[in-house]
Design a protein that fits this description.
The chain is an alpha/beta fold. It has helices at residues 12-24, 35-44, 65-71, 86-94, 107-136, 145-158, 174-183, 202-210, 227-230, 246-258, 284-289, 295-301, 318-329, 338-345, 352-367, 384-388, 396-410, 415-422, 426-434, and strands at residues 4-8, 28-32, 49-53, 55-56, 59-60, 76-81, 99-102, 164-167, 192-196, 211-212, 224-225, 235-239, 260-261, 270-271, 275-280, 304-307. The strands form five sheets. A five-stranded parallel β-sheet has the order 2-1-3-6-7, with helices on both faces. The protein has a five-stranded parallel β-sheet with strand order 9-12-15-8-16. A two-stranded antiparallel sheet has the order 4-5.
């Protein structure tokens, strides 16, 4: 990406000379004539470097440096000062500036300082990303052939900045994969901003994305920053984008194409340099055919599609996932017995990894620190009546139906609690109930 530089200096000749020189040398340069204008510039743009004059019409730039360093810890800050103000420049570095130069500034010398500062910024970003990964630990995806193929694609996605569309059933870990892509990419030290499009509609979704000014709509009682503001320079992850309203899809398409937007009720055009990741559990081409999703937006987000296979499609990964989840939930617990592993491996897991985690967490709570046993997994253990039934009872659809019925009975028919325990949405539960095998 072309580095963005902000020059804050009230001398018109300095602004003109710097703008011409840096534009020719491959930088994008913005200018401001005061501290107030500089602050406004940061509202609409993220900068890689700041060239700051200390003596400005509305104050001394040195007082702004600590605030900038706190908000933008990796941004390069180079102070420009008069020859007689060396002690002040040294104090500016103590407060957080990277370098200082005295006027008149030699532009060739400034470029060298700038390049070194940008290299330092890049080094800081990599270090922060490595520290974050070391603290958090890597998620476990599996070792099956189709997962290895998926991770090859995922590594390619992390190595570039193109939009990625992650597809897969509910509860399969689309959000985890999106965060992995972000944390292994060039923007790892920048914000990862996530929004689930299925939970918001109309103005509320638009406000969440774009932000709004006071009075933009009935409940807009004060100005609000949108997620596009927050994601500037980082990654925007839109989960369940297939549920986005058509009206918002049209507005968001323009944002994807131009990286420009307006807050609701505002005429100012803002910019956001974000990396876009999307996810959906829907068949988006079918949604396009049926008019529920825009064809042009689908083509814009479907640049690099990645499909996560369900647990049913990769039973070989189940043991590793079980051990990984148990370790993350209860480190001191011994490995489950073969009987327990057989029980868990022979269930179809309609709610995928989310359901698996919920079942394991519930089992650990019921076990109260003791070794896991069959009775700690109510609803999963096959009943005596099931064994007496026909061979059809052992087919996946029958096993899934029996488990769902058992969970529903456990919660007294409460579909909301049953859906949460299964790790699926209420709508998904209703769809599965409609498909119960007929006796």
């Amino acid at each position: 990406m072309i580095p963005n530089i902000l020059l804050v200096d009230n001398d018109p000749s300095t602004q003109l000379g710097f703008s011409k020189y840096f534009s020719r040398t491959g930088y994008t340069i913005w200018t401001a004539s005061s501290l107030a204008e500089g602050r406004i510039a940061f509202l609409s743009q993220l900068f890689d470097a700041l060239l700051l004059d200390l003596k400005l019409p509305d104050g001394n730039g040195i007082d702004w440096i600590p605030e900038l360093r706190e908000k933008y810890p990796e941004m390069a800050i180079i102070v420009i000062t008069g020859a007689g103000d060396i002690p002040i420049a040294v104090e500016a570095m103590r407060r957080g500036a990277d370098h200082f130069l005295t006027k008149p500034v030699k532009l060739t010398e400034l470029v060298v300082f700038l390049q070194k500062s940008l290299e330092l910024r890049s080094w800081k970003q990599r270090n922060l990303a490595q520290e974050r990964l070391a603290r958090k630990g890597e998620p476990y995806f599996g070792e099956s052939p189709n997962i290895k193929k998926m991770m090859e694609l995922t590594s390619l996605a992390a190595a570039n900045d193109s939009p990625v569309l992650i597809l897969g059933e509910t509860g399969i870990g689309k959000g985890v994969l999106a965060r992995w892509i972000h944390e292994h990419g060039s923007r790892a030290s920048t914000p990862f901003v996530e929004l689930n499009c299925s939970g918001l509609r109309g103005e509320l979704l638009a406000s969440e994305l774009f932000g709004h000014v006071k009075g933009a709509f009935t409940s807009a009682v004060k100005e609000r920053q949108g997620l596009l503001d927050i994601a500037d320079g980082g990654t925007l992850f839109l989960d369940e984008i297939g549920d986005m309203d058509l009206s918002i899809q049209a507005q968001f398409l323009k944002v994807v194409e131009e990286k420009q937007y307006r807050r609701l009720g505002e005429v100012i055009v803002r910019r956001s340099d974000f990396r876009l990741l999307c996810a959906s559990n829907k068949d988006l081409p079918q949604e396009v055919k049926e008019g529920r999703f825009r064809n042009d937006l689908f083509f814009r987000i479907n640049v690099f599609p990645i499909h996560i296979p369900s647990l049913r499609e990769r039973k070989g990964d189940l043991k590793g996932l079980i051990l990984h989840l148990i370790k993350s939930l209860e480190k001191a617990l011994p490995e489950p017995s073969q009987e327990i592993m057989h029980l868990l491996e022979n269930y179809s897991w309609p709610g995928n990894i989310r359901e698996l985690r919920n079942v394991l967490e519930r089992g650990l709570l019921l076990s109260q620190g003791k070794p896991l046993a069959i009775e700690h997994f109510p609803g999963l253990a096959p009943s005596a009546s099931l064994v007496k039934e026909s061979p059809r009872s052992f087919q996946l659809d029958s096993l899934e139906a029996n488990h769902i019925k058992s969970v529903l009975n456990h919660f007294g028919g409460d579909t909301q609690k049953a859906a949460e325990a299964l790790g699926i949405s209420r709508a998904s539960l209703y769809r599965k109930m409609k498909k119960f095998p007929k006796k």
